[in-house]
Every structure is written in structure tokens, then in C-alpha cells.
Amino acid sequence: MENLKTQVARSGAWLFGMRFGYQVLYLARLVILARLLNPHDFGLMGIALLTMMTLETFTHSGFQEALIQKKENIKTYLDTAWTMLVLRGIILFLLIILIAPLAASFFASPEAERLIQAVGLAILIQAFTNIGIIYFQKELEFNKQFVYITTGALIEFLVAVTAAYYLRNVWALLLGLLAGKLTQVIVSYIIHPYKPKIILDIAKARGLFLFGKWILGSTVLVFLITQGDDFLVGKIMGAVMLGFYQMAYKISNTPATEITKLLAQVTLPAFSKLQDDLSTLRNAYLKVIKFTSFLIFPLTGIIFSLAPELVRIFLGAKWLPMVPPMQVLIFAGLIRALISTTGPLFYSLGKPRIDTRCQVIRFFVLAISIYPLVTKLGLLGASLAVTASLLFSGIFFAYHALKLTNISPLEFVKELAIPLINTSIFVVFIFWLKSVIFIGLGKLLLIGLGAGSIYFLMAFLADKMYGYNIYFLIKENLSYLKK
Question: How far apart are the first and last CA of the chain?
């Protein structure tokens, strides 16, 4: 058990470093490109990526998740899995070339057709990724994944920014995407010794798919839920509004996205190793809830209260129409980060169908609310529909997670209460401060530091007075890093 805790702590540290480095590059790229390009360019790229993701989602195999979940040696499955993924990539590349005119017509953006076809190259390139890198996640070797992810992100940043400076159009975004994907494929063969071969074992493929079919169902539902609003906004309001909406979503949900990815990559293999020890799994899940809420609540509060200033200072005045939907979507991101703790739990216990059923609820709420809200309130309506769907489905996610781990609702709420109260205090302080002073870049940074200081001070007091124990949890994980 101590060895597993050490693995998880070290993996978490590497993942944090990886995601932090990635986000520094991502946000820097976003700010620079937002200055060099316009919302219409981002909207066109959004249309192309939506088309690509639609094809990828509806053909998702779930093989990677199945390989991670398996307790036995997976080496005999790797060549079959890689062969299937390569065949899928080739087929999807051909399909996207054929359907590009239809997709461009659907969004009434004929200029997107060639861009959609070119984006198909990203699918083809990524299909040849070395399947051996699955061990990075399965065995918690995230130091190697750090190199794999960060190298691709750095090349994408350099190529996209350089191309945008000279081209000043949407093709800069595409060139950055393709360069990043190609780099990651090359690096995958450099940092892992496994050399996949073309082998197709139908029995093994069927075994992987039996697990993966529930992943497919959940993935399709998540796609319809997370991208359905983009489709509707792009169809009804056009590429420019889609550009505003997607930028609002990216910035408001960046904390949730990063926490979600970090948790999924660490907790799925860790929970899978604990699947036969319910008591230890229960305690591990409570710690994940505590740490997630400790991180996500203050980030939500800062982005919500400083959204107008963040957009004006870093992106420019031309992006200000995205502020209201951004402030609503930040709450969607908070709920999504909390929900993200349940998926690895369900998968590790061999119950992916629970995740799929909860996603059905989320899809139903979104489906019945989004069209009337978008037609009446525009981008703000889309944001409200997304947030409502997460709120309602989140109740069912939490119910099943608590039932599986024998955690009482009171225990769950206690982990959320203190970070919620502490965040509310500094949010009130920020709004008061904004009412008396104009905020520029320097003051924005000082306010951010001040809010963070208030939050950590309140957490320290909660540790001493109410046994919050968040600092003990942090120290515990740091101690495992030293072993």
C-alpha cells in the first residue's frame, strides 16, 4: 500500500508539472493568437475540430481504457489494439474528406471545407502513435508522459504563433495542430521501446470491445453533451458567435479541464489497484474529493469575479461579448470537475455502465433546454443550459459514487463546505474592491495574490479549528515524493 501511495504521489507531481507546463504554453498561445487573429478565425477552426471530433467520438474503441483497467499482463493485446487504431485512423481520414462539403454546408461556412479536410490529417497522424505509451498511465510512469505531452505542446505553440504572425489567418491554427500531433507520434517511439506490429487477433479485439462498448456509449453521450451546444451555436448564430462561445468555454473551463485530466490519469490506475479493498478505496475517494474541491473552488471564484478584467487585459476589447457566458460557464466547470472524480471510480470497479446512464440524464436535460434558451438568450442561454444539465446529472453521479463507496451524504458535503465558504469570502472582497478602483494589469495581479492569500489563510484556520486536514493531506503526499 505504501508503495502504491508513493507511486500515486510521484505520478501526481509529474502530472501536475506536465499539466502546468502545458497550460502555460496553451494560455500563452491563446492570448497571443487572440491578439493576432479574430473570433471568425477561431470559429472556423472550431467548425473543423467539431467535424473531426464527431467522427472520432462515434468510432471511439475504448481500447485504451480497457487496457488500463485489466489487471493481467496486457502485452499480448497491444499489437491488435494498435492495428485496430491505425485502421480506424485511415478510415476516418477518408471519411472526413468526403463529408467536409456537407459539414461546411451545415454551418453555412463554405470557407471551412478545405480546412475540415486538412484537419483530417491530424486523425491520420495520431493513429500511428506507439501503443506502448499506454504503460505510462497504467504503471503511473508520468515522468515519461510529461516528455511526450510537453514536447508536442511546445512545438504546437511555436509553429502556431510563428505562422499566425506571418499568415494572420486560420491556417496558422491548423499548422500548429498538425506539428504538435506529428511531434508526439515521433516522441512516442523514442521514449518507449515497444515496437508495434500489424496483427489482428479477432478474439482479443472482441474482448477489448466488450469493455470498451460502455466507454463508447459514455463517450458518445459526453460528446453530444459537451459539443452539442457548439453545434447549435454554430448553426444558429454563425462562426463569429461560435468563436466567442468557444473562447469563453476554454477560458472558464480550463481549471476543470486540467483537474479532470489530472484526476482521470492518476485515479483510474490507482483505483483499479484498490478495487478489491473497499475500505481503502473509500478513504482514497474521500481524499480525492477533498483535494479537488480545495483546488477548484478558488479558481472558480477568481475567474468569475475577474472575468471582465481578464478578457479586457489579456485578449482585448474585441472579445468582451464573451464575458457573460464565460461567468456562467465557470460554474459548469466547477460541477464538471467534481463529477470527474466519479468516472475513474466507476471504471475501476468494472461498472462503466453507471457513467453512461448518468450521462443520459445530463443529455436529456441539455436536449430539452438548450434550443429555447439559445433562441431567446443567445450565448448566455447556451451557457445556462450546459450548467443546468451538469447540475441535475451531478446529483445522480454523486448518489452512485457514495453508494458504491459507503460514504454518507454528510461526509461528502463536509469536504465541500470549507472551500466553498473560504472562496465566497474572497469573492465578496474582490467585488467590493472593483467597486472602488479601476483594475489594470498590475492591480489584477495584486488582487489575485491577495485573494489566494486570503483563501490559504482561511484553509489554515479551518485546519486548526475544524480539523479540515487539507495541509496534512498535502504533507502526506509530499512525504511519499521523498521516498
Answer: 13
**20: its cell numbers:** 502546468
Instruction: At 415, list the grid cell.
Output: 469536504
Residue written as grid cell 506571418: 166
> Can you say whether residue 140 is alpha, beta or left, with left for phi > 0 and alpha for psi between -120 and 50 degrees?
left
Q: Which residues contact 371 (CB under 8 A, 6 or more apart)?
A: 232
Percentage of residues in the chain with pLDDT exceeding 70? Answer: 81
Is residue 386's pLDDT more than 90?
Answer: yes
Q: CB of 150 within 8 A of CB of 24?
A: no
Q: For residues 161 and 179, is the Cβ–Cβ distance under 8 A?
A: no
* Distance, CA of 259 to CA of 195 (rounded, Å): 32
Q: Where are the alpha helices (DSSP H) in 192-277?
A: 202-273
Map grid coordinates 433546454 to a residue. 369
The pLDDT score that the predictor gives to residue 2 is 46
pLDDT of 478 reads 47
Reduced DSSP (H G I as helix, E B as strand, rest coil) percent helix, strand, coil of the chain, to 5: 90, 0, 10
The half-sphere exposure of 362 on its side-chain side, counting CA atoms within 13 A, is 31
Distances (CA, A) of 178 to 153, 159, 194: 11, 9, 24
Cell numbers linked to 150: 510537453
What does the DSSP 8-state code read for residue 317?
G
Instruction: Please classify residue 242 by burial: count the beta carbons closer than 10 Å to its beta carbon, then call 0-12 exposed, 13-18 middle and 19+ buried.
Output: buried
Task: Provide the grid cell at 250.
Answer: 476554454
Cα torsion for 349, 353, 357, 360, to the nearest 10°? 120
- The burial class, CB within 10 Å (0-12 / 13-18 / 19+), for 372 is exposed
**By three-state DSSP, how is residue 483 classified?**
coil
Nearest to residue 156, comparing CAs of 133, 139, 138, 173? 173
